[in-house]
Amino acid sequence: MSETPDHRDTGGSDGGADRTPDAVPPSAAVPPSGAAPRLGPRPLERSEADPAEQALFGRPDGVDAPFDPPPSHGTNGTSRQAPGFPLQPPPTAAVARAFGRPERAGAGGLQRPPGSDGAEHTDPAGEAFWPGGSAEDPWRDPDTPVVAAPPHGDADEPPPSPRPDGPRLSVREVLFGGRVQPRALALLGALALGVGALGGLVGHWTAAGASALTTPGAVLASTEDAKERPPGSVADLAARVLPSVVSLEVTVGNQAGNGSGVVIDADGYVLTNDHVVAPATGPGQGSIEAVFSDGSRVPAEVVGTDPLTDLAVLRVPVANPTVASIGRSAELAVGDSVIAIGSPFGLAGTVTTGIVSAVDRPVRLDPEGSAGDAVIDAVQTDAAINPGNSGGPLVDSTGAVVGINTAIRSAGTAQSGDQGGSIGLGFAIPIDDARTIGQELIRSGRVAHADLGVNARSVTDGATDGAQIQNVVERGPAAAAGIADGDVVVRVGERAIASADEMVVAVREYDPGAQVPIELVRQGRPLTVTATLGER
């Protein structure tokens, strides 16, 4: 294309309105006579097309129209090639079967109902293609308003259609129709026989039991409530204490005796009475055997004895023995429940119960039963204590040992050994005294007691009780304090004296060498002296 010289618009309000390419011929640029000169439109500037782009996006050779006409088809249904366009080869038979029209479609289009053969199909209402007419179909009516559908699930579900009854099987069909496997039939038969046999046995047992109830002379056994043994009961306490109690069998020559003891230390130390082991420690040197609650027997060795308090300590070669719990006798009160455990008359593991009848009861033991003039400040109990209980523990309601059973009162005589029987007057050494003496025996084998150096007897004038001095040991503690024969002692320290035995136990409450004030009555006049106790 040739270029046209550049013409610029010099004015005019509508000078830009006629700038349409090729809209005005060049001759129109010459204004009419008497008019102002006017420039014509500038021709378009078109650059040469790129050969590569033209080959890619340009029209094919020989095609001038905007779109190429469709290829014409031959009479036999095959396409004829249009000028300038190569056609694809006809499809194969497999592709034609898969994607071609079905043979029954005929010449009609896809919108024709099957079987129309290209002819216009109408229903009785005069509408084409849609049974019932298309006038009521909202998808075919352009004037149908748009309505929002309800959310999914809001609509009521249609009720389920009732299931039809299946064919019923008869017994003949089950057995002979081959509808059930023979193995299943055999299993059902065996199950039915088992259920029948079980029912028969239950019926037989029921009938037999009913006949036994109706038989004349039948006696129904009565039932009792289960026994309850709460913690703290006698049964519970006995079960806890019995493993720590031993039965002592003493043999001297062809003679034998028995007593009891209680384990007080994990090293195998056993606390008992002196009069229990005295026959084995005297002339003849007998043997002592300890029998535990489980039946085991071991020999016992005497560690030490104290005849003045009727206590002794033995040792048994037992590893990890059960040790009794030690309580406090000073906390006992009259009426407290107590349990006595021992081997009366050789019956090991005997348990009796009672209460504390009195505390701080001075009791002089039978000199034939002990090796010395033993006087104890006893705990009195009505628990049954018999010969053989000696040396066994007296236990409180917590299972702690509060005394060592020692003596009984029978037929008006204090009995500490193998004579008499229980009449409800038993005596035990307080565990506070027994613990101190037992520890000293384990440590040194002997115990030193305080002594006043007098002999006395119990007296009373009807208003005052006391201990009358019968004999003062020469150069003894009483003689040094100025006590004379005939004086009546009424108080030792803080303890009132009502008998000679009580004076003895009151003096033994102190250690040797202690200075103790002693109140006495001499020829009807009160007198107080201070005595420095000696040792015995």
From TrEMBL:
Domain of life: Bacteria
Transmembrane annotation, as ranges: 185-205
Biased composition (Low complexity): 25-37
UniProt-annotated stretches for the region Disordered: 1-169
Compositional bias per record (Basic and acidic residues), positions renumbered to this chain: 1-21
Residues of the PDZ domain: 441-522
Keyword field: Hydrolase, Membrane, Protease, Transmembrane, Transmembrane helix
UniProt-listed Gene3D superfamilies: 2.30.42.10, Trypsin-like serine proteases (2.40.10.10)
Signal peptide start-end: none
Pfam families: PDZ_2, Trypsin_2
UniProt similarity note: Belongs to the peptidase S1C family.
PANTHER family, alphabetized: PEPTIDASE S12 (PTHR43343), PROTEASE DO-LIKE 8, CHLOROPLASTIC (PTHR43343:SF3)
Annotated protein name in UniProt: Trypsin-like peptidase domain-containing protein
Originating species: Pseudonocardia nematodicida
